[in-house]
Amino acid sequence: MMTTAAPASLGDQLQQAIDGLPPDQISLDALLDQVGPQGLLLLTALLTLVFLIPVSIPGVSTVFGAGILLVGVSRLLRRPLWLPTRLRQRQLPADKLRNALGRGMVWVARLQKVSRPHRLPVLVDSRIAETLNDAALVLGAVLLMAPFGFVPFSNTIPGLALLLLAIGLMQRDGVAVLLGHLLNGASIVYFGMLIGGGGLAVREVWDRIVG
């Protein structure tokens, strides 16, 4: 009697993509080819990993952040993914990227332990929920690209939001999706506090100068 093999987990799929990286250079176009045109959520999860650890690889944050944003836009507009040629073909160091992605996999392992398929289906199955969730992907990408990279947790919080949204949408897990929305909200509050605190500091300095 033949048995059907269980589908590969998200962690296994991501690890396969990481293991398949070439030894020297990699482009976003090549990453897209690895996950396939139907794997946009998998691509989102993969691109998010580098934002979850302290890493500095020239060009990666710009290319990956823009890639996540355009994936979200394509899903929101229900159109095929479009990437500018310059973005698709930008060459990145595969060896450094492989190491960074591998370190980010610890977050996937943690989140997979708490994610369960088909929980709170109302948050993932309706057309309205789908639109709101795709808009949340766009919002998360915008927050991820905000110019606060030097501030602790400024990448981690929206990065976790995006990873939870991607995992939740892939597994139809409304709880994971809800947590992704909440972390998007937490990112907005955190950035608001940074902007407000910075404004107060500038005002205080100004008052001392002119006072």
Automatic annotation (TrEMBL):
The chain crosses the membrane at residues 40-73, 137-170, 182-202. InterPro entries: ExoD. It comes from the Bacteria. Keywords: Membrane, Transmembrane, Transmembrane helix. Pfam families: ExoD. This is Exopolysaccharide synthesis ExoD. It comes from Pseudoxanthomonas spadix (strain BD-a59).
